[in-house]
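Field: COMPLEX_INPUT
Field: COMPONENT_COUNT = three
Field: RESIDUE_TOTAL = 1047
Field: MODE = joint
Values follow.
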Amino acid sequence: MGMTWRKFSAVVIAGVLALSIAAGCTAKKDDPKTPTPTTPTTQAEPEKKVELEFWGWWASATRMPTINKIVDGWNQKNPNIQVKYTYVPFGDLLTKYLASVAAGNPPDVVASPELFTVATRAQKKQAMDLSALGADSIKDQFYPEFWKAVQFQGKAYGLPWTGETKYLYYNKEHFTEAGLDPEKGPVTWDDLWNFSQKLTKKDASKVTRAGFHPNFGNMGYRGWVWNAKSDFFDARNWPVVNSEKNIAVMDWFKKWTDFYGYEAYAALKGSATGGAQHLFVQGKVSMVVETATWEGELKKNGPNIKYGIVPIPTQDGKQHQTAANSGGFAVELPVGSKNAKQAFEFAKYWVTDAAVIWAQEQNDFPAYNKAIEKISTPEFKRMVDNMKNTGLIPLPLFAPLYNDALDIAVQEVISGKKDSKTALGTAQSSITKMVQDNTAK
Amino acid sequence: MASAVPVKRRSWNSSRTKEAIAGYLFILPWLFGFLVFTAGPMLFSLYASFTNYDVTSQFDWIGLKNYSRMFFDDPLYWTSVYNTLYFAVFAVPIGILVGTVSAVMLNANVPFQKMWRTIFFLPKVLTGVSVVMLWLWIFNPQDGILNNGLRAIGIEKVPLWFGDPAWSKPALIIMSAWSATGGILIYLAGLQAIPKQLYEAAEIDGASTARQFVKITLPLLSSTIFFKLITGINSAMQYWSNALIVSHPNPPGSPVNSTLFYGLHIYKQAFLQSKMGYASAMAWVMFAITLVLTGIQFYGAKRWVYYEGERR
Amino acid sequence: MATQVGHTHISKELAASRRRNFIVRWSGKLLAMAVLAGVSVFIVFPALWMISTSLKPDDQVAFSNWIPRPIVWSNYAKALKAIPFARFTLNTALYALAVVVADVISNALVAYGFAKLRFPGRNVLFGVLLGTMMIPGMVTMIPQYILYAKLHWIPGYLPLVVPHFFAGAFFTFLLRQFFMGIPEEYSEAARIDGAGELWIWWRIILPLAQPVLATVAIFSFEGAWNDYLGPVLYLSNNKLYTLQIGLTMFRATSDTQWQHLMAASIVVMLPIIILFSAFQKYFVEGAAVTGIKG
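Field: COMPLEX_OUTPUT
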């Protein structure tokens, strides 16, 4: 065993060393980062040919056909600006983006996985100023909330790509069963409460069907605070977490939890996961706030559910800009990218015409307000109509982790450990501290 | 490093010089790699710990501000220290116990030995996000297998696991105990190095299995156990990525910061708040803590770790 | 068939004691097997759950039943087609192979130096070596990335493979412990005969350390096979990606196909399990340490 094994491994070593060095070298040669401005052989075009590197997070079989269609379409029409798409896993895109900017070899265009941190990256000199490249000239092509979201100190640092909105979904059969008009969904917070009295079904101490709970679904404490026309930071960006209104919303959360009992609430919340296990799909809740695109999942996982959609109820029944909220995606040009002008051209295309293609094929909602001319499904129209009720609220520059403190407060109040005023008071102090620490230097 | 053999004066002993040169040559690959690839980034981060480095826009010297903030002005820092120590205190001994006992069992001549060993090795291979998601399902308070099983044997008030700050760390410790069997290989290799004749001689002398274990196995396995202890402490101090996965979609460290480990706190500061300088300071303090703990173990090792072929 | 009374008498006792030993040994084995079986259940059930999930149809993925009804074998075919499995496997295999070779050789060399050779500063340098594993990687990640960028090694496999040729704390420490357990008498005998350290290392120490070297090999292989952050950070060419990156492609932002992800994860895991099972004897059968002392 001894000698032959050693000889064999020596050969393997040599072979593998050679291979790995070869692999390393070829990878280097393939490096698309070095923009080779190849002077074309024909004399007609004096323009430099450029290859752009474009990072995005799509790779699944559902997404890729559309991506390829868009990129290939662009490449055909723009022989001097060739785009190469590279997949980067969603969870690590920001890290890789950051590292590449730090090292000075970033891609040319990056699909930004977080619309509401564009301003943060702008402040940290990670994303490029696009107003300087002429972005302001197209600002009217986007819904105003989206355009606002990519601003930092009056300039645009990203181009908004897609977004969302949210609705209240309700189960029409549950309504009929409970003696409610299935064509009239809730409009106010009181409606939610009153309807739930009839819709909720209990079985001893177990709740088999809950009418509604603000912490189910996709709204969260923050969403309801914004819905109540309040906020966590004032105009000077100082925290006002424990304002009267916010405390009232927190009390409202507590009211709902007490209505079911904490155990029942926790049991319901714990049994909910995604897909077919969603509480609404399981029939365990009659009304829930969810995103607009979730409708597709609902149809797939609960094809027999007769549901209605209404805008999210507000305290007084009137809709306003932040009755619903959403996140979104954008494209950015990393600082240090070498072909900014060409990259900007592609970015513009990506969020306008390409966004329409994407929306059509992927059932998504673009920030481009002209998309409605090409897409006329009722779902799409509904989304467009709700945009005036949808706020896109960026992450505060000086307290990016403020939601951590809020989440703790919600937990404490719901589980009965603290009352709203105290819990929010604690959150206010920690968030104030965050802001102080971050503005100190 | 004084030699115990004072035959010749060391400085004129050419065979010792030759040995020293050979020593340096053997470690040269590491030394070279360290100087080229590792030392630079380490020193960079040490320097960064005295600055307000945020990777892309600022890098100004601020002296000891990061350190004073860490110790005196950041309650979450102490939470993270507590969480990490809590985890380490349980996970490290349990890991060593599980590993040693498993390896000894798997070393004995049981039928289907090969199959058992492969099964015990599985946790080493089952890593990654999908596996952690599996555990989340297993630990689901309502429908998870674990709680279903507990209810089946009559326990009414089942722990809420990741839904309860008091039970989230125990859940992670259970997960880590499970992974510990994956390390049997190292113990098995260590057990191979124990000469069989020692056991045969003990058998002839009438020693019981337990006595053999205590008098032969443990001492001759001590260098392996020591290795596992040091590396165990080290990885427990840096344990955090599972916490990120189990907290999702709630804020990292949920519930209520009970899974906010030291490493997770560093991650949040570095990447979610862009405070790379502060994160670097925390990392170097962790380095110092680990160094001290390791140093203590090395000092204590003289009393219980045995090397057959040591050269002092 | 004894002819003398005394002989028969001793035979009976011997036979009885043999029978006793047999019973003790086998009940011991049965007990051990029972314990092993019990613990195995605990170990295996996440894996079983994974397999169960991988065979479930779309809409039953989060259900808590063990046996899917119906059993969807086609999930595996779908999973393998969803991403460029063959290419990723090739990339990952080459990467892992290069890393294993580099790790085994470099760490064996360095560990020998620390374990068996005396030189000034040995303990301090060993401390520095250990120190390198005590720094949380997050804070050295960016400066390291910048370093590799300056070397023009990004994107590519060089930052992932090259450092393994220069040894590392974990494996060097492991091998050092083992080398320090090998009695000096073996090396002494060779030294007296005039052998150089490298010869001793190659011909005496390494063969004696086969189990631990095999352990280093499989740990190293598993590390590279399952390496995620490194490839994500340093590779930018879809064609060069590894299996772990491939697995992330199943996780669309809204609707992860868990059954396909589990099926793919299981397929990704199999090579290591097969390697371990096939090469088991290298891990556990050492070259006989016959002990010069007796």
